[in-house]
Amino acid sequence: MSVTVSTTVNGDSVDFVCAPDETLLDALRGRLGLTGAKEGCGTGDCGACSVTLNGRLVCSCLVLAVEAEGQEIATVEGMAAGETLHPLQRAFIDHAALQCGICTPGILVAAKALLEKTPDPSDEEVRYWLAGNLCRCTGYDKIVRAVQAAAAEMRRA
Amino acid sequence: MRYEKPQTVAEAARLLSAEKGVARILAGGTDMLVQMKSGMVEPDLLVDIKALPGTRTIVKEAGGFRIGAGVSGAQLSEDADLKAAWPGVVEAANLIGSTQVQGRCTMVGNLCNASPAADSVPALVAAGAKVRVAGRGAGRDVAVEEIPAGPGKTKLKKGEFITSVFLPARGARCADAYLRFIPRTEMDIAVASAAVNLSLDEKGVIKDARVALGAVAPTVVLCEPAAKAIIGTRLDDAALEKLAAACSAAAKPIDDKRGSVEYRKDVVGVLAKRAARIAYTRAGGQK
């Protein structure tokens, strides 16, 4: 049995057909070719699949694709404006806040959601907010510094 | 598997009772999808209750709060009135999982998943919260502590499901608090937990109290001897010691890698003392 889903991803209307028990993560990657969200654990522990659903940060591995019907999804692919990177994306490069990069899309999406809610977070707030985004290579110091640098730049803009 | 998103409670109840195979409810999905993925549950029917009227909203009712079964932890944290009236319930619900999990997880899901270590459940029990159970017949209101039957099991009958949880009105000089112990600072499951809800008279004497314990028995424990130990006191040291002793005595925990029986019994008493102090201060009591 398959279901047709009409949803909005990064501002674009999209339709796809999926199985009723397929996750939003699998639909984004397999049906829509949006491979920015990664499957780390598949059980909501690592945050590599982070997207926003109607502006709310979620793990796309814990959302069914059918639940996206009529909703608005935003992924890391929607962060840059054409060729211009989002300040967070630039700050992650400038501060070498990534190595293998698997966790990076999820962290960027999560950090963007944080800064929309809290434009001037303390380091502690950044760490708590990102506690559900696991990084196994860089460690978290550079990530926190990159988020703070981007936050400072965005406050000046 | 069939996925259904009914628009009315009656339709949801009809779908659930008509299903001959395994039927499950989907609200936040943070436990359900993990269980489906691991093969622990293979539903034939999944009923998404988020389109039912009132499942996504927090509404003032009779001076209290009716919280829909699909309301996320993040939504709870953004409701200033709810936080002011029931800070312990909101802090307990907000301890569940990560920011991402908070975007979806629900208190009713936490209750129906029926983990003995569920964080929001002791706080709801201490608060005297009631859930609205829907099914084929008329809906009924049930005290939260009546729902869990044991690890992973509830007393809900086939075709029954919970549509909302109700937190009663608050008078002056009332407050609650919830504390859990975890070996990490974040993203972990309670080794032991305690919730205290109390009200004071004008002189700061505790008039009424409810104490609930988590992760120290197959289901949440509503500990009446612990409440009795502090009622009529100003939470002096002797009352706190009696409170802790009552909690330790009521705890019937398991022994596992996360904590021994002896350790859990001791820690639950310490947590209850600390939670009681926080609730007392929040209620305006002076020590």
Description:
The complex is a heterodimer of chains A (157) and B (287). In chain A, 34% of the residues lie in helices and 16% in strands. With 157 residues, chain A is of the alpha+beta class. Chain A folds into two domains: 3-78, Ubiquitin-like (UB roll) (Roll), CATH 3.10.20.30; 87-156, Orthogonal Bundle (DNA polymerase, domain 1). The longest helix of chain A has 16 residues, at 141-156. Chain B folds into two domains: 2-167, Uridine Diphospho-n-acetylenolpyruvylglucosamine Reductase, domain 3 (2-Layer Sandwich); 174-282, CO dehydrogenase flavoprotein, C-terminal domain (Enolase-like, domain 1). In chain B, strand 2 (23-26), helix 2 and strand 3 form a beta-alpha-beta unit. At the A-B interface, strand 4 and helix 3 of A face helix 2 and helix 6 of B.
What key phrases describe this protein's structure?
heterodimer, A: 157 residues, alpha+beta, Ubiquitin-like (UB roll), DNA polymerase, domain 1, 2 domains, 5 helices, globular, B: 287 residues, Uridine Diphospho-n-acetylenolpyruvylglucosamine Reductase, domain 3, Enolase-like, domain 1, five-stranded antiparallel sheet, 11 helices, 14 strands, 34% helix, 24% strand
- SSE string of chain A, helices as H and strands as E: EEHEEEHHHH
* Alpha-carbon distance between the two ends of chain B: 58 Å
By helix and strand content of chain A, what is the structural category? Answer: alpha+beta
Q: Which blocks of ≥5 consecutive residues of chain A have pLDDT under 50?
A: none
Alpha-carbon Rg of chain A, integer: 15 Å
Instruction: Kindly report the average pLDDT value of chain B.
Output: 97
Question: Major sheet of chain A: order of its strands?
Answer: 2-1-5-3-4
Give me the oligomer status.
Answer: heterodimer
* Helix-residue proportion of chain B: 25-40%
